[in-house]
Amino acid sequence: MTRTDNDSWAITESVGVTALGVAAARAAETESDNAVINDPFARVFVDAAGVGIWNVYSNTALLADNTDIEPSVRDRVRLMIDFMAMRTAFFDDFFLGAAASGVRQVVILASGLDSRAWRLPWPDGTVVYELDQPKVLEFKSTTLREHGAHPIARVENIPVDLRQDWPMALQQAGFDPSQPCAWSAEGLVRYLPARAQDLLFERVHALSAPGSWVASNVPASGSFDPEGVRRMREEMQGVRDAAAKLIDTDVPEFEDLWYAEERTALAEWLDERGWEVSATTFTELLTRYGREVSYDSESASMPTQFVSARR
User: Fold this and answer.
1) Which homologous superfamily does the CATH classification assign to the domain defined by 14-310?
2) For residue 235, what are the contacts with CB-CB under 8 A and spacing of at least 6?
3) Rounded distance between C-alpha atoms, residue 207 and residue 175, angstroms
């Protein structure tokens, strides 16, 4: 699954598989006791995709019922579910705050299987622009349509690669750069080269009128520490080995989809350009949403910073 400059994918291929992994974690969290999020469409996407490694995350009984699985694998899967739950709650609250401030344009970059246009209580007149690979958007639209789902906001699908001229495609779809917008880049930047990340936010900044909001989760300091990367790869290999025992399917190496490059610090970059910025960590989100864990959340995951800002 080596990345190339112009690679593309369907929902069960390459980066598309990661969107299913996120949906699977959201489904598991939604169906758990004391869930911090409610995503009723996550299970719909997972079921429509069929069998894959995502089933390990969406069906935790697979691990719980198999005594041959190492406890560390269960911890890694639990970490994945907790991380995606906190991430989802963070972005949900971000969008609700932007909507409450009067923002009626929303742009979800690399929207994947995000279902916020269908499940958040958007005010009348809100337009959600979803940008992603054509096959990914088609899978989502078709699946939701077949299940009779109707969006709460108006949705504009924009099938485009974010490495291409997506600002032109966005404006051709009706986006008005003179009006405030709420932008999200959730679970995106690790899949972009460092220079492409810079270009992405340069474009966001250029298209953001006063009153705009932006949020992203980005690699924090120490993300590319060799020992941390080695440990993470080792733990993920354990999950793949377990999945291979439980599910008759190929198990991709997700880490090979990332660009492990040192990057511009987004919080500082936005601050230098006049945005009002706040940043938090995964551990702080666990505390915010009342989630108790049995592992060291900072050492168990690649350091991540959750950034939100208002212009």
Assistant:
1) Vaccinia Virus protein VP39 (3.40.50.150)
2) 72, 76
3) 9
